[in-house]
Write a structure and sequence with these properties.
heterodimer, A: 116 residues, six-stranded mixed β-sheet, B: 115 residues, mainly beta, seven-stranded mixed β-sheet
């Protein structure tokens, strides 16, 4: 099974500042998909951003962008102009392009606190 | 209602009880999933259904029994659980299981406590 590692259990950022959450993964495959999900306190998990491994261009979604380094197997999430509503658990996930069961492998999450 | 809904949101049960968790998706998706979320551990995929057929069972103990009567509804039947089964149980759905249909949409979860 693939392993996804989020080495920062907790992070904090000042409102309006930028923060980067790290994620690394272990795979021998060349074709896969990577995801960042956000889980606010007591609310459901929502997709933040999706990256296709065969695309060199980093995915962006408004204030959220990723730094995808395929050779390093690194997939970090940058949040710009942080807002109070960004406070949540953030999970990185991996999916093999060859998996017919759509199995996601998740990291243990990073808890982000936004300081007003 | 929109998205993925789960009931109940909280459940406390004894080890000898039988209970069921319900999930309903209003997205027109064909695939549904059960996950177990425990503190400081990665989400654990339990079951996958695609077009009502179970396609994955990740070595889940038989005290957890899934049921998928149609593409919109998913149940998790629970019996003789153990205290270590206490966790947040998340349901998710996706358009399908193939690449390009893979984004999973999650429900709010059922917080289960086993006494």
């Amino acid at each position: 099974a693939q392993t996804v590692t989020q080495s920062q259990p907790e992070m904090s950022v000042q409102e309006a500042e930028t923060v980067t959450l790290s994620c690394t993964y272990d795979t021998s495959e060349s074709d896969y998909y990577l995801f960042w999900y956000k889980q606010p306190p007591s609310r459901q998990m929502i997709l933040v951003i999706r990256q296709e491994a065969y695309k060199q261009q980093n995915a962006t979604e408004n204030r959220f962008s990723v730094n995808f380094q395929k050779a390093a197997k690194s997939f970090s999430l940058k949040i710009s102009d942080s807002q109070l509503g960004d406070a949540a658990m953030y999970f990185c996930a991996y999916r093999s392009a060859w998996d017919t069961g759509n199995q996601f492998y998740f990291g243990t999450g990073t808890s982000l606190t936004v300081i007003p | 209602e929109t998205g993925v809904t789960q009931t109940p949101r909280h459940l406390v049960m004894g080890m000898t009880n039988k209970k069921s968790l319900k999930c309903e998706q209003h997205l027109g998706h064909n695939a549904m999933y059960w996950y177990k979320q425990s503190a400081k551990k990665p989400l654990e995929l339990m079951f996958v259904y695609n077009f009502k057929e179970q396609t994955e069972n990740n070595s889940v103990p038989s005290r957890f029994s899934p049921e998928c009567p149609n593409s919109s509804h998913l149940f998790l039947h629970l019996h003789t659980l153990q205290p270590e089964d206490s966790a947040l149980y998340l349901c998710a759905s996706s358009q399908g299981t193939a690449s390009g249909q893979d984004t999973q949409y999650f429900g709010p979860g059922t917080r289960l406590t086993v006494l």
